[in-house]
Amino acid sequence: DVKVTQSSRYLVKRTGEKVFLECVQDMDHENMFWYRQDPGLGLRLIYFSYDVKMKEKGDIPEGYSVSREKKERFSLILESASTNQTSMYLCASSTLGGKGNTIYFGEGSWLTVV
Amino acid sequence: GENVEQHPSTLSVQEGDSAVIKCTYSDSASNYFPWYKQELGKRPQLIIDIRSNVGEKKDQRIAVTLNKTAKHFSLHITETQPEDSAVYFCAASKGDSGYSTLTFGKGTMLLVSP
To answer: Which of A48, A67, A69, B4 is a Cys-bridge partner for A33, taking CB atoms 3.0 to 4.6 Å apart?
Structure first.
């Protein structure tokens, strides 16, 4: 059973703070993703990584960065949090090829920036 | 890039009725179309997917149809039950590429009333 774990489920941060969201997967998946979910806007891709130390911008990368130092771990970084980054953040992973691109999501991290 | 439109945004049905959610996509090269279900407070989970070499796929009360010419695909749920209440997301990607990404629709909130 695929497990994608997001260490922080609920966070409250102040404007201007640096925020780290951590994600770990236990299925040796090559691909990892960070999505942002907002009501009425669906799931929007922030960044993804298809290998250690590799990263690619998604549709809304502005204000975010990522780090992938180990295959199982993918971190999302908000360098200076702003109120418009209040949202639910979903980490996901998938294998390379194989079953198309079925991705498996974590439980999500609810971030409130005040 | 790919653009996925999903309709309706909300759908209310009586228990036992059928529900249909429709999506259109813009990139004719897309060939993998999954559907995810997200229950309140939980992670999105894959419920069914279809590839472009197949026109229809069924799994118990759930079916998905694909019209490549028109570039649209639909989710059909028969004999709806209250536990079907959730947000449903469609998505599209070019599944042959190892690290191609999924583009999601904005979601449909399905409410099944007893």
So the answer is: A48
Q: Is A3 buried (19+), middle (13-18) or exposed (0-12) by CB count in 10 A?
A: exposed
Question: pLDDT (tens digit, 9 = 90+) per residue, B23-62?
Answer: 999 999 888 899 999 999 899 999 999 988 889 999 999 9
- Bridge partners of residue A90, in order along the sequence: A35
Cβ neighbours around A99 below 10 Å, total: 12
| B98: confidence class by pLDDT, cuts 50, 70, 90 | low
Contact B106 A100 (CB under 8 A): no
Chain B CB contacts of A30 under 8 Å are: 98-99
- Tell me whether A56 touches chain B (CB under 8 Å): yes
- The predicted structure's pLDDT at residue B2: 85
Best of B43, B54, B88, B89 to substitute, by most chain A Cβ atoms within 10 angstroms, is: B43
Contact predicate B21/B84, CB 8 Å: no
